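so ive been stuck on this for like two days lol. basically i have the seq below and the ligand is zinc ion, smiles is in there too. i just want the complex predicted, nothing fancy, no docking runs or whatever. if the output looks off dont worry ill sanity check it later, just need somthing to start from for the group meeting slides
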Amino acid sequence: MSSIEYESRGRFGYIHYYKDDKKLKLEWEMNGGDLTVCEILLLPLNLKEWREPKGVKISKDEQYRIVKDLNRLLITNGIKSDLSVILEKERKIEFEERACIWAGCNQNRIKGMVYCIEHYSDGLLVK
Ligand SMILES: [Zn+2]
């Protein structure tokens, strides 16, 4: 089970993400552009390690699962973020009937690319 908690300190704040007994604290800033499109700026996400248990590393695969889960929770909670804007754009990308070349990955690759969306969109995450 996972959930989020929204904390506002005015122009910035935090999204607290809870997954089982683990926690993340993600900082956001208010969007300076069109608030009807996106209210808060979360990217790039630093999902390299848990805040609790402190310092425990998060695998790349787990990070992508968190990205999707976080997006789902943000939408469910009516929070408009840049993450959702980017993922919505990616949803419209065309794919090929060939697998991504990432070791062990068998998702379809993006048309004209060698990687699937998860392995291509590293820009979502802090490296
Ligand atoms: Zn892949």
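Residues 60-76 form the longest helix (17 residues). The pocket of zinc ion is lined by residues 100, 102, 105, 107, 115-116, 118-119 (CB under 6 Å).
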